[in-house]
Amino acid sequence: MDLRNQSAVVTGGASGMGAVTASALAARGARVAVLDINQTAAQDKADEFGGVGIACDVADAESAASAVERVVAEIGPPRVVVNCAGIALAGRIIGRDGPHDLGQYQKVINVNLIGTFNVLRLTAATMSELDLIGDSGGRGVIINTASVAAYDGQIGQAAYSSSKGGVVALTLPAARELARFGIRVMTIAPGLIKTPMLSGLPKEVQESLADQVPFPPRLGEPEEYASLVEHIIDNEMLNGEVIRLDGAIRMQPK
Hints:
Strand 5 (94-95) and strand 6 (98-99) form a beta hairpin. The radius of gyration is 18 Å and the shape is globular. It has helices at 16-27, 39-47, 61-75, 102-127, 149-152, 158-178, 196-199, 203-210, 222-234, and strands spanning 7-11, 31-36, 52-55, 80-83, 94-95, 98-99, 140-145, 183-190, 242-245. The protein has one domain: NAD(P)-binding Rossmann-like Domain (Rossmann fold, 3-Layer(aba) Sandwich), CATH 3.40.50. The protein is of the alpha/beta class. The strands form two sheets. It has a seven-stranded parallel sheet with strand order 3-2-1-4-7-8-9, sandwiched between helices. The termini are far apart.
């Protein structure tokens, strides 16, 4: 897809994989809206490439609807949507203080799964009204972010794995339903990516984690996530599938 002068949305776009992806899309000529819970960070990132920074709580219906309305008004209905917004909270089902806190579990589900679906439903509705483009007559693509934890969830990741497993399960039915509009739906399941959270760990911990990756034996780079996003955008036969971006890692129980 030629992204020049096309509208694109990246949630969680102020940091990590989202920030690098937003910059990559802008470099290809897209008009990019950076959506993030942190308004200042979103605007700072958007200012780097002349985009739009919008505060958005993806798990909140009104906040997300308002953000999408601003996107449509300021840069047009998006042809590309990348859902990177997410949180990770660890907790055992039976911990030292008793059962897993239900509020924490709900919070992770709300942001990672419901937030992803919330943005998908809203942006798909606007995308469905766009003109058809390309030889196949498509309208756009929505790329969600899961995790290898959806498949290899570790002890303490019940909430996180549940949320990302839901994103995986959402992929095919969404792609099938939106196919009649020419909208593709894909999901990336990253492994150990050098996000701000991992980069803040002690060097020895980072090296220990990197040693678990068969090849290449290192942490992944956010740029590699962004590169895969670009390839998915360009390759229209990629639809309704989840791609692991993980160097063949299979996470151990703990």
